[in-house]
Amino acid sequence: MKLQCVLLAVVLVNTGLISVTSAHGGSDSGGRSCEESVADFRCRSNVICEGDRGFLRCAVGKIQITSASFGRTDRRTCSRGRPDRQLRNTHCASPNALAPVSQSCNGQSSCELSATSAIFTDPCPGTYKYLSVSYYCLPPEIRSVTTCEGGMVLNCALGQVIHVHSANYGRTDGSLCASGRPPSQVSTTDCYASNSLTLVSNGCEGTSSCSIVASNSVFSDPCVGTFKYLYISYTCECRVWNLIVSGSLYLLYHHFLMLT
């Protein structure tokens, strides 16, 4: 793996498929920037009218739910053929929509959802509701790990290093890390520690292995009384990609040429 990574870097530089920034600034080729090369996390959305069924699908990768709401927030969505009295209330939202949707769909390439009050409870009787879901397709090379309050270790193979894509210490799903916990400790699902990504990146970015402790003492307490967990998504990338960012690959390339 280590040799493959080095050879890959040399081939890419030699063919001009990547852009290498020198120590003096500027670019040695016309390739895409690092930001432009990041995997596409295009957000997708689906709306299912009350009483109907719908599907979420990823042609490549796995589903990762970002938000879910069952209720009504405007008068136009799912309004055809409905009397005005069923559309007036636009401040209607079920408090537990995210958990069942995440449980049914996260990690799947496709899933079926039903928009019914039997699943999401009825936040506003008499109002015609709909299920609105936002998600993205997590690329297959991206790994995601979750640990309840405690510790976790991230590892990459020889010649690879960790690149952190996202992290959150808190709670966005009522079903994760909920075993044996009273409802009062898992009902809050909009809990985010704003320093999560920074702290995880500081400890793991560019290393082949790292250990992170999921605790209030590390991340602070974003939602007192809620039992939290740490979620991280990351990739294992060739070590040379970190050299690209630092502008050191140019030197590596010329060193390789002198050895051949």
TrEMBL record:
<dbReference type="Pfam" id="PF02140">
    <property type="entry name" value="SUEL_Lectin"/>
</dbReference>
<dbReference type="GO" id="GO:0030246">
    <property type="term" value="F:carbohydrate binding"/>
</dbReference>
<keyword id="KW-0732">Signal</keyword>
<feature type="domain" description="SUEL-type lectin">
    <location>
        <begin position="48"/>
        <end position="138"/>
    </location>
</feature>
<keyword id="KW-0348">Hemagglutinin</keyword>
<feature type="signal peptide">
    <location>
        <begin position="1"/>
        <end position="23"/>
    </location>
</feature>
<keyword id="KW-0430">Lectin</keyword>
<feature type="domain" description="SUEL-type lectin">
    <location>
        <begin position="154"/>
        <end position="237"/>
    </location>
</feature>
<protein>
    <recommendedName>
        <fullName>SUEL-type lectin domain-containing protein</fullName>
    </recommendedName>
</protein>
<keyword id="KW-0677">Repeat</keyword>
<dbReference type="InterPro" id="IPR000922">
    <property type="entry name" value="Lectin_gal-bd_dom"/>
</dbReference>
<dbReference type="InterPro" id="IPR043159">
    <property type="entry name" value="Lectin_gal-bd_sf"/>
</dbReference>
